[in-house]
Amino acid sequence: MPYKRKLTKCRKRCTISAKKGGSKSTARLIRIQKEESPMCEAINGIMGKTPEDLLKGSHQINAVPVDLSAILEKAKISVIPSQDFSEYEQNTGRRVLGALATKGDSAAIFYNEKEPSMTWHRIRFTVAHELAHACLSGDKFHIAFRYDDDKEGQSEEEINANIFAGALLIPKKSLLKQIEILLIPTISLLADAFDVSRSVMEARLKFLGLTDMVLT
Ligand SMILES: [Zn+2]
What we know:
2 domains; two-stranded antiparallel ribbon; single chain; binds zinc ion; 216 residues; alpha+beta; four-stranded mixed β-sheet
């Protein structure tokens, strides 16, 4: 039987509620995909929502950093560290970072805890990215692949999911406020404040056209 646990980053107040997956997680994912119902209550409840909707819904409109667990709890979506995506990776020839899957009315986001590049920040962004797919298109089964920063190969859907994830983890209003608060705003200080990687912060600043306001 799976058991519940909390993943806690000591120096941060963010936690992700998670259930421990079994060793047959890939087979289980594929089984979930086949069994999925078109009427998933969790996905239906979140589909069409914007990053602002999710922040307001979890009372975090001005929260820095954003607590993803509060959003996931509200959306009734579990986060499951998955230990074995090897079967899926062998079939596709690609590295899997995360996945969104449903079973009945339940939805879960899986992330690849065996992938060496899955740092805390990458887990956070992967979870936000998978959440974005649920909101943007109501995806019930989505696999996020690792592209080794090959942005050219990303589809519009993937780019939009990344933009959504950036807006959720780094809301523009909060970012501008932090830039104002910090005497000498740097990418590293802002990344630390929002609990994201430096590269995610850089991409967000570039997307918003705010790079000139921040020291590298
Ligand atoms: Zn994706």
